[in-house]
Amino acid sequence: LKDKVEELLPLIHNIPVLALNSFPRDETTEDSQEQHPLQYSFPIFPEDEAKQGARYIFSQEHKKPLILVPSSNYGSRVSNAFEQEWTALNHGEGSPAETYSYKNQSQLAALIASALQTDNSQRRIDQMDKITGLHLKTELRSRRDIDAIYIVSKRNDLVMLKAFIDVSISPFATKIPMYASSRSHLNDKQQDE
To answer: The pTM is what?
Structure first.
């Protein structure tokens, strides 16, 4: 476990160690590998995963991703890492990634309406109804410049976000591919069904 790595290291001297968490850093050196040549770590920080997500979405030839994250320090760190990597991959050109954040599940419907701009579409419909005095047959339209969505959320939020996205995409528009971080992974058989 992450909190036990520091306790384990002094007990092992000439045996290679592979930890899936980071090693504590010595104050005198920047690089923990210099200090411990037989100790290897493969920590996966949320920022690293977000950068990897950006690289994968870029490799799929997407041009304009949308990022959905919780409104927290964690969400800010992840979205900043994704956005920076996306900008670097595009050499500062092209469309930047857009981030939308939410505080709780009660905000998810409004979040998706804002992110996909169906709220603007509804305002235009309401305005036309008011101007004409008629109830016009209309359909909400979602924005069409987004071509990928990267979701960083817990499993319960992911299920709701996906449902809101599915019903918010215009029926005549192309489906937007969605990618989720490992944070939403649930290790049980139900997920595989």
So the answer is: 0.74
Cα 123 from Cα 118, distance rounded (Å): 9
DSSP reduced 3-state for 49: helix
Structure tokens at 80: 């900043």
Element (H, E) at 66: strand 65-70
The position carrying tokens 């905000």 is: 107
The 10s digit of each residue's pLDDT in 52-111 is 999 999 999 999 999 999 999 999 999 999 999 999 999 888 889 999 999 999 999 999
d(CA 154, CA 151): 9
- DSSP track, 162-184: HHHHHHHS-TTSPPPPEEE-GGG
DSSP H or E run through 109: helix 108-115
Nearest to 125 by CA among 113, 112, 136: 136
Place of tokens 């991959």: 89
What six digits make up the tokens of 71? 């409104």
Pairing mode, if any, of strands 98-102 and 148-151?
Answer: unpaired
Q: Which residue has the higher pLDDT, 68 or 123?
A: 68
